[in-house]
Fold each of these.
Amino acid sequence: MKISINQAPKHEGQKVTIGCWLLQKRGSGKIQFLQLRDGTGFMQGIVVKENDESLFETAKGLNQETSMYITGTIKADDRSSFGYEMEVEDIEIIHESHGYPITPKNHGAEFLMDNRHLWLRSKKQHAVMNIRNQIIKSTYDYFFDNGYKKIDPPILTSSSPEGTTELFHTKYFDEDAYLSQSGQLYAEAAAMAHGKVFSFGPTFRAEKSKTRRHLIEFWMIEPEMAFYKHEDSLEVQEQYVEYLVTQVLEHCKLDLERLDRDTTALERIKAPFPRITYTDAIELLKEKGFEDIEWGDDFGAPHETEIANHFDKPVFIINYPKEIKSFYMEENPEDPRTVLCADLIAPEGYGEVIGGSERIHDYDTLKQRIEESGLNLDAYEWYLELRKYGSVPHSGFGLGLERTVAWLSGVQHVRETAPFPRLLNRLYP
């Protein structure tokens, strides 16, 4: 019977066959311990010399990453986190590996990134990708279960959703086009048709940043909701993030353990989340020793970390100055200098994971903001038209997948959270 490693608990005491690779091995003159992987998990296989000397010699000669069919009996093993192992009775080599470059020793980051196509096979990278996969699954579950429809905005666009110059330019036949920075504007159009929608796709930022929080290509989850005010949107964000955390804790226990993730920090992530206004955050930073920061300045990573450290779970920074936020954000009626927006700052130094706002729903106001921002009015005519035919208050937000994976898995650099990350100096492999 052929099974996968993750099915082993259902086959205790049975003889089975597993297609797998050799991750590592160790042993003595009498026994070989084979660390096996098959994509679904990791398990130890044991080969005892006195049981079958020929099989023992085969096991002893195996090289790292050799592929094989391995047959044996599944046994309980309380010493391993997986809880099961195999008493090996037969090994059928499929392909013998020689000179695998990533050996069981420390390697530099650049070497590992050059070999990303192979580094993905390691236990820790496997765990990170499992957590990423769970976040993706849980995202679909959350939004579908709560009445949202998925829409797919175009990746090629004629203008910038954010109104910035950090765009990748290309030719679209005889027109100029850009790789999308965000699906938000298109999601707004879809929300006017379907009420509650979300998009989930790749976005691109031509930002020459080398920080541990930045990628050139990354994935965004962007819900947009008709008839939702800013406060309504904040509640959705809290519920969604809490759901992601609980699902990862429930379904990725072995992965979190493999990454040495302190889960007590994640177990505290329960809604509602604390909130602090931008203005109060400036005062807090001044009290913490950031004397140079002034009202109107944007926050950098040290500022976000300091604010997050003041709380024991994610914190919303709300109502940023109008001048440092995007043109489409609704003005704050209690302070016209600011807009109805929020950034959700993750604890433990992981920075902003969500940015959101209530959108301007008045035609004349939005038109004025587009003109004040120096944008091409013709390029945004379709977006303006959403305010001409039954406009309603609406809100939305964007969650960065890779930053969220980094936070929940506890890895220090966002490059480990994408299968093949695109960085300022990296387009290979």
Note: Residues 116-417 form a domain with the BirA Bifunctional Protein; domain 2 fold (CATH 3.30.930.10).
Amino acid sequence: MANVDDVSSCGQNGSLPALRIVLIGGRVDRCPSGKSSTGNFILGQDVFDTSRRTAQSEARQQEVLGRRVTVVDTPGWLWHYSREDTPELDRIEIQNSVHLCPPGPHVFLLVIPVGLHLSQDIRPSLKEHLELFNVDVFSHTIMMFTADAPCSDKMIESKIRRRPTLQWILQQCGNRKHVLNISDREDEDQVKMLFEKIETMVTNNGGRHCSVDISHGNALREKLQVLVEKASKRFGDVQKQRRKLKIQIEGRSEVSLFLC
């Protein structure tokens, strides 16, 4: 379900309309997915922490090329894991991402580092995780290749031809792709071209963004609160047990010294 929100039309006072972007994608164990770096590049500021794994969805806003841009970073699932194997808290955070940019995102950017090799067995995992959003995500998705050095479209196209999985993902995304050299922060044309591709996609979708169910968002927040409280209680119980054990150990040490 989607609502009309044509990003190709002008906003108030002739300004460019806002853009709402959700970054999604898997990760490889102990290897960053590059979503946070992508968000920083798009917004032109280091607003997402790239030194740690993203544990919860976070939304940041900046003025970019004359328009208000919201980017939501999300936890990455392990590419080869089924949705059931992804921690429940991660699954809820991924779902909640679309509720952090109301009334809903214009685009999902599926972030894939250029050097990452994806085997064919990631297909069911990708489908299962995108079903968390309860919308046709692929019709609102651009495949985002990230690199830390110059990387031409020709190089990417050659890579895609050699990788059946990349061919499949690109096909699912309506052959929409973009290459981002995240090491060149000064190159605004990369972002300008991305915005143009987003506008074209939205126009082809009838000028619509992905709508979100407010009641579903409220339910997710309540569930998150319950999980956080349970986790906090478990942490408190563990700390309490550790203190008790420490007292017992120290007590035994004192007794041993006394007997000596």
Note: The mean pLDDT is 85.
